[in-house]
Structures are given as structure tokens and as C-alpha cells.
Amino acid sequence: MSGNHDPHLGTTSVWAGEDEDLLHKPSAVPTVHSVSFDYRDVDQWLEVALAQKRGYIYSRNTNPTVHAFEEKVRHLERAEAATSFSTGMAAISNTLFTLLSPGDRVVSLKDTYGGTSKIFLEFLPRFQIDVVLCETTDHRAIESAVAEGCQVLYLESPTNPTLKVIDLSRLATAGHEVGATVIVDNTFATPINQSPLGLGVDLVIHSATKFLGGHADALGGVVCGPTQLVERIFHFREINGASLHPMAAYLLLRGIKTLHLRIRQQNESALEIAQYLEAHRSIERVFYPGLESHEHHDIAKRQMRGYGGVLSFVLDGGFDAVRTFLPRLRYAHLAANLGAVDTIAGPPATTSHVECTAEERKALGIPESLVRYSVGIEDTEDLIADLEQALTSTAEAMT
Ligand SMILES: *Cc1c(COP(=O)(O)O)cnc(C)c1O
């Protein structure tokens, strides 16, 4: 504190003790809650404001904790640039609204995440943006829709909740033939299991809320890709204002430290559980890309290093069986989330496709007796024993 006289208590409460540089290289990334950043030298301030020099001005644009999160995901996706968002849906909608203008055309899949499909069906058409949603695994239909011309080809693999897999490098080639920007939602695979940029895709999107954070305690989204594209999306977001909160960035950063360990365990458990369920008499069908019975196991094997922590299955006995079965699970949150250290289960009607009506789900080919099961990091044998007791007592209760 400087000056000729001692300040009064009000001024002291505002200014005292803060003169030093507060960030003495702490070993853990600190949560910088500050909205703005100070400059004594106005010329330096101007340089940063004009982006001639790296620095922070205002946390809607950039923030040190948020930047550390972006850098970590950028390295995991081996991308040139990354920018972050308050949620996964903010990442998706900001990206689409940055890239599309009235008169443009998007080609995508019927099985995109529920919120994404709402953007396609409810919001983009209001801006005279034409949306074509193809049968998710019909590669020929997607290629011919793309060949008619489009600005964006928007993909997701594996999909939610029936774990469909599409050939990303084949479709990236199709998109590039017409000059489209090819986007992949990589939330289900994570950068541990799948690297879309390496398969020729332009932009990778994550809901960091799920596996990246992994602890179901922070919302966030991120987009990775070439600098020139990511900067345009960053600019839209800094003005639009869907910025990631530093506290959420801190939690996501801490979560990512164990991403590879969690995914290793979840890959292993999910495969074992999928095999167990496939052989079970009360289960009509299991969807998991790691099963040899999966329609596109060959593609998954080629483009993924592991098959992920989410599977889904159809119970004998319709929605009544689902209603009876779910509360009998001891080691599963019944909740609208996935990708956490805790196992989470739920039907599409209250999870992935809560935004859709029953008719819409039917049109999307999503059975009402489907259960989505996101495997946590618990011991595999405990999860299998839990499923076994819940299935047995459901079968008893239903007869
Ligand atoms: C959850 C999810 C989103 C949306 O993410 P939010 O963080 O909830 O906005 C997008 N895509 C996929 C595949 C998801 O699972």
C-alpha cells in the first residue's frame, strides 16, 4: 500500500494485502475466479487487448484456469487449437451457429445426441438452414446426401444410446469432396479411445461434463481443431457469452488427470458386462461396439483403441420390466448422466432422449424397454453380481 496517509478501514478491506504477484507457480492449477486482469502499463494492456501479445483481459474471453483446461484437451486430441464452453450443448450450438448462414445445408445423422437433434430440427430451420438427417449407419445414404452439397457434415460415433458406429475417415473424405467442414462429437469415445482428427475430421467436440470431467460435478464443453476454424468459434463464443466457469474448469482439469486410468477400467468392465448380458436369458439384445455381434464391430475395431464405458440393452417385458428393474440396482445412480466414476443407468425417455416425445423416439428406432448403462470404476464382479440380482428379482416380480 502506498500513499502519504494510512487508508481507512473501508479502503483497507478493498486493497490491503494484494500487492504481490499472487501466482507463485503453484504445483496444482489454481482456480482464478477473477473476472478481469490488471495492467499498470497501458501500452501493454493495449497489446493484449489487440491480441498482439498473449494475456488475459476479461474472463468471458479467456481466463488462466479455463486456458489450462483448453490446453490439456488440445494436447489429448493432438489439435492445433481448442476453445471451451459452459456446456457441451454450448460447444455444439456455438460451433454450428459460427459456421452456418441462411441458405446453407447441414448433413447429419438421425442418432445424434437429443439436444443436438433439437438444434437441427427446431432451431436451424428458423434461420433458413436446411438440415438433412440420414439413417445413422447407412454410409451410402450419407455420402449421397453430402454429394448434393453441404457446408457442414456433423457426425457422432459411438452414438447415444444404441452405440452405433460409423466410419469417420470414409465420411470425412466424402465431406471434403464438397468442401464441407466435418465435425465429430467424440464424447462417448473420449480422446483415449478415438482420435477423430487423426482420421481426417476437421473439428472434435466434447461434452466435458461426461468422461473428461468424470465425476458428475461440473458442466463444460470444448471444441478442438485447426487454429483458423477454432478462432472463429472462439470469437462467436466470447461475444455470445457461453463461457466456461473457472471453478468448472478447475474440476474438469482435476478429473482429466485420471482420464486414462478411468477409461482403461471402464473399457474392460463394459466389455465384460456386455458379454455377460448378451448371454443372459432376460435380455433381448445388447448394444456395445466391443461385441463381435455388433453390426459395425469391424469399423469400431479399426478406428477405436477401446470401446468405451457405455452400453445399452433391451429387457424382456417392455417398459414395465424397466420400471421394475432399475430401482433394484444397488450400484447405479438412476440419473440423466453418463461417463462418471459411479455407474449410472436410465431409460432413454428420461436420459438421452428426454427432449423427444414417445413418437419421436419410436421414429428414431429407440426401444422403450432400453436401458442405458454407463459403467463406473467399481469392481467389475460387483457390478455383474448387482445386475444378476436385479435381473433375477425382476423376472420373479414380473411373473
Ligand atoms: C451430454 C452430451 C452432450 C451435451 O453436453 P452437456 O454438457 O450436457 O451440454 C452432447 N453430446 C453427447 C454425446 C452427450 O452425451
What's the arrangement of secondary structure elements?
Blueprint: H1 9-15, H2 42-49, H3 64-76, E1 81-85, H4 88-99, E2 105-109, H5 114-123, E3 130-134, H6 139-147, E4 152-156, H7 168-177, E5 181-185, H8 190-193, E6 203-207, E7 221-225, H9 227-240, H10 246-256, H11 259-278, E8 283-287, H12 297-303, E9 310-315, H13 318-325, E10 333-334, E11 344-346, H14 358-363, E12 370-374, H15 380-398
Parallel strand pairs: 2-3, 2-4, 4-5, 5-6, 10-11
Antiparallel strand pairs: 1-7, 6-7, 8-9, 9-12, 11-12
Helix pairs in contact: 3-10, 4-9, 6-7, 13-15
The site of pyridoxal-5'-phosphate has 14 residues, from helix 4.
Largest sheet: 7 strands, mixed
**CATH class division of the largest domain:** Alpha Beta
Amount of beta strand: 5-15%
Gross geometry: globular
Q: What gyration radius follows from the Cα positions, in whole Å? A: 23 Å
Helix tally? 15
Integer average pLDDT: 94
Strand order, largest beta sheet: 1-7-6-5-4-2-3
